[in-house]
Amino acid sequence: MVYKLLFVCLGNICRSPSAENIMNHLIEREGLSDRIVCDSAGTSSYHIGSPPDRRMAAAARKQGIELVGAARQFQRQDFEEFDLILAMDRDNYRDILSLDRQGKYADKVRLMCDFCTRHDLKEVPDPYYGGPAGFDRVIDLLMDACEGLLEFAMENFKE
Ligand code: 4NP
Fold this sequence. Notes:
Elements: E1 3-9, H1 15-29, E2 36-42, H2 54-61, H3 77-81, E3 84-87, H4 90-97, E4 109-111, H5 132-158
Helix pairs in contact: 1-5, 2-5
The structure holds 4-nitrophenyl phosphate.
């Protein structure tokens, strides 16, 4: 069985593609590419089809991660398709769950920062309207969360 992770932010051009590509980097390093697969999406339609933000890609590259992908919007079918859906902030979390009126999939949706072990932040801050330091901070935070998430995913697919 393949364990499927979906990372979700607002635009799908900064935080969630970073999370997806960092996670893929860790998965490849651990030789788990046939066990865990990742995708990302945005709650908004603002940037559908766009590549990751240049400023975000520059921050990721400094840590040896290339950001690839094209933005798409989160859709109801994703609840069925994925085993775990990771919201970057509380707005994303709420917007995702607003598409699940019956609460059928609530257990699949988590905040990304729940998996951090080094950082205390509860949300991945939106870097879009800020300076370069904000992008570096997002990468550092996501590295932490992705490491915790990998441990969690490995526990789950062992079952
Ligand atoms: P993301 O960042 O949700 O991490 O992809 C943003 C991208 C675009 C906008 C806001 C946040 N925007 O308002 O267009």
